[in-house]
Amino acid sequence: MKSKNKIIIPVLVFLAFILGASWSYLVIRELNNHTSPVSKVLGTYTIDENSISSSVDKIYDATVTVITYSGENQVSSGTGFVYKEEGKTAYIMTNNHVVSSGNAAKIIFSDGSEAETKILGGDTYADIAILTTESKNIKQVATLGSTKEIKVGDTTFAVGAPLGDTYSGTVTKGILSGKERLVEVSLGGTSSDYYMKVLQTDAALNPGNSGGPLCNINGEVIGVTSLKLTQQQTSLTTTYSVEGMGFAIPIEDALNYANIIEKGEAVKRPYVGISMIDITDSYYLWQAGIVLPEGIKKGVAILEVVGDSPASKAGLQKGDIITKLEKEEIDSVAELRYELYKHNPGETIKISVNRNGKEKEKSITLVESK
To answer: Is 281 known to be catalytic?
Structure first.
């Protein structure tokens, strides 16, 4: 009896081991099927399951290269995407600076085919422009997403034509590096003219990407790529460059402007009737004969007040230092425009100024800028 037990016990232990190992294998395999391993090997082909190729497919053929002409001469190129189709008309969104220097544009699709477009219009400060073409020309319409749910650290990718149509269809991947960034923008001078509220990504953006789609992991457009910040600082013999900082206009803002442009209307912005300068520009202040009141460290100096303007009617004067718009402190011309453009023509706003060392509050009824 004891000899039989000596035989049965090892057999049972061996069977338990086999069953346990089999069960563990099945559990691990099932978990792997649901948690997307890094890769699977099918025959001799390896599939990377971290790939975003299926998401890229949702936007790739909707993305176009935009070539802008002035007469017969090409003056610029960028990227755009088909965001809407209505009847026989398809609508393409791009940046205003891509088309503003020309009077005609064509688009090149992902398969190399081309189509003529009509430039409906654009807005300088929003940096959004709208083109149209016949629906029969288009290959795909983009799916539009939302910036409300996306979080810093989520995957983003861009599709565009860096350096022109030779590299059209370039896809770059990164993460959302920041939301609601305020970026200073210059219209060509040495000082900043206004602020834009943008998304920040480290997906590589280069000249030619302007106007293209920035997408979330689902392939939905969440922004229109517009700016790239490249800052160089030199210390003795070493030059440092800041890379991996790309920006995109949130899709909600872009659509608001697109809806206006589609109707053939201009974006209405408020007008005050002053020329102004940052108080840090001491040379120009001296040239204009403006002396800052003692203790003033922030603000915008008024250089001139236009006659019969809202500013003139409110009693603003040359030399006044604007320190607040409503309750927001003003540090620069760019910030003043940003705060001003939150309001609409017809609204009455309060502006605080320092005149000869004394604070005054003025009520200004805004009119539409021409």
So the answer is: no
Does 127 participate in catalysis according to the annotation? yes
Question: What's the pLDDT tens digit per position in 49-71?
Answer: 578 999 999 999 999 999 999 99
**pLDDT tens for residues 145-193?**
999 999 999 999 999 998 877 888 899 999 999 998 988 887 766 567 7
The CATH number of the domain covering residues in 55-137: 2.40.10.10
> May I ask the CATH architecture of the domain 155-262?
Beta Barrel (2.40)
The pTM of the full predicted model, rounded to 2 decimals, is: 0.78
Catalytic residue among 210, 226, 332, 352: 210
Catalytic-labelled residue, pool 61, 127, 278, 320: 127
Q: 155-262 with 270-368: one CATH topology?
A: no
| Distance spanning both ends of the chain, measured CA to CA | 108
Q: Which of 55, 61, 76, 97 is catalytic?
A: 97
Higher local confidence (pLDDT), 146 or 45 = 146
Measuring CA to CA, which residue among 250, 249, 267, 221 is closest to residue 91?
Answer: 221
The per-residue pLDDT for range 116-147, each reduced to its tens digit, is: 999 999 998 899 999 999 999 999 999 999 99
Integer Cα distance of 126 and 123 in angstroms: 5
For this structure, is 320 an active site residue?
A: no
